[in-house]
């Protein structure tokens, strides 16, 4: 596994884990169920019309609005007992790859820690609410033909929050056991030098570093086809956030980005929201 830090703006960074060989012993029942659901979803996407096609269209619209931070943490595999034992025994450290001209090398692990920890409380809270909401949706099962979509949506969101929590804990464990190390990437550095503006805030305002034009270039150059969807979604969310005057975005001092004055801040989301309200 390799961890990539891809700055999206001067204050936001996309975390993406490129996984190597997947051990079948680490692929539990939940993962198999998720794979089965993904295959069914792909089949529904091929349909030209009907209620299944409409479900897919609405579903994809909803998926696009799931925070990119959550998708990033979900890309990190959970820390199973087998994986924990293997990583401790092998002591093979995980690379944290980033563009050094955009992210100073001494800030990389701090940003990684921020991304792994800052949303943990939020995911736990929403996981609980999803579980509470599941029984409430049971009456929808009485609707003929169409499955209980609200129930399945809450199941998916609960699983998604659980995986984000697990991914964040895995990263925290790697950091605590000194099993990660920074790897400045010349390839990423060249990509940002060619396609991104300087990671600076001369007017003290957040600036985007990537646009949709760079998505395919990054994906092909890094030889990570799956990154294309993640990067496209993340850039879209950042662009929408900056267009919204009511969305102030992350504070410069606590942001998991290149302009952060205190990289590695792990202030809980609830405290950050309180500061914004004040």
UniProtKB/TrEMBL annotation:
Keywords linked to the UniProt accession: Membrane, Transmembrane, Transmembrane helix
TM region positions: 127-146
One Pfam family per UniProt: Mit_KHE1
Entry annotated with the keyword Endoplasmic reticulum: no
The UniProt record lists the keyword Transmembrane: yes
Bias type Basic and acidic residues, positions: 241-255, 269-278
PANTHER family (UniProt xref): K+-H+ EXCHANGE-LIKE PROTEIN, TRANSMEMBRANE PROTEIN
Name this protein carries in UniProt: Mitochondrial K+-H+ exchange-related-domain-containing protein
Species of the source: Fusarium solani (Filamentous fungus)
């Amino acid at each position: 596994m390799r961890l990539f830090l891809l700055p999206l703006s001067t204050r936001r960074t996309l975390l993406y884990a490129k996984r190597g060989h997947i051990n079948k012993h680490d692929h539990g029942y939940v993962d198999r169920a998720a794979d089965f659901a993904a295959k069914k979803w792909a089949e529904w996407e091929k349909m030209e019309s009907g209620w299944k096609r409409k479900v897919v269209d609405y579903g994809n619209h909803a998926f696009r609005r799931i925070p990119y931070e959550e998708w990033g943490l979900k890309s990190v595999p959970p820390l199973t007992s087998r994986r924990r034992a293997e990583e401790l025994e092998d002591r093979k450290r995980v690379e944290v790859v980033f563009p050094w001209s955009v992210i100073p090398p001494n800030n990389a692990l701090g940003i990684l820690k921020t991304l792994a920890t800052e949303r943990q409380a939020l995911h736990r809270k929403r996981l609980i609410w999803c579980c509470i909401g599941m029984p409430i949706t049971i009456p929808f099962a009485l609707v003929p033909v169409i499955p209980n979509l609200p129930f399945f949506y809450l199941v998916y969101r609960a699983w998604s929050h659980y995986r984000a929590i697990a991914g964040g804990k895995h990263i925290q464990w790697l950091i605590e056991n000194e099993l990660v190390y920074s790897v400045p990437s010349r390839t990423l550095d060249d990509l940002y030098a060619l396609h991104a503006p300087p990671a600076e805030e001369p007017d003290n305002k957040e600036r985007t570093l990537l646009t949709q034009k760079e998505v395919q270039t990054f994906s092909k150059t890094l030889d990570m086809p799956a990154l294309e969807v993640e990067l496209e979604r993340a850039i879209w969310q950042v662009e929408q956030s900056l267009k919204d005057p009511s969305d102030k975005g992350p504070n410069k001092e606590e942001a998991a980005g290149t302009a952060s004055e205190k990289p590695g801040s792990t202030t809980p989301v609830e405290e950050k929201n309180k500061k914004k309200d004040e």
